[in-house]
What does this fold into?
Amino acid sequence: MKIFQCGNCGQTIEVPQGVPKPPSCPRCGASSAMIHRIDKGPPGGRRGGGPPWQRSPQ
Ligand SMILES: [Zn+2]
It folds into this structure.
């Protein structure tokens, strides 16, 4: 399952694996440019800096 969220109205859209990102928001009709995938962790991904065991403790 993949999860997308509409950046316009906040609607979350779940689609099965293998199904492409919806072309528009089913709730407000915003274009796919406003729809972002949200099930892959925080935006920006990894920040680098090596594995956790090499980081200095806080
Ligand atoms: Zn929407």
In short: The chain has one domain: 1-41.
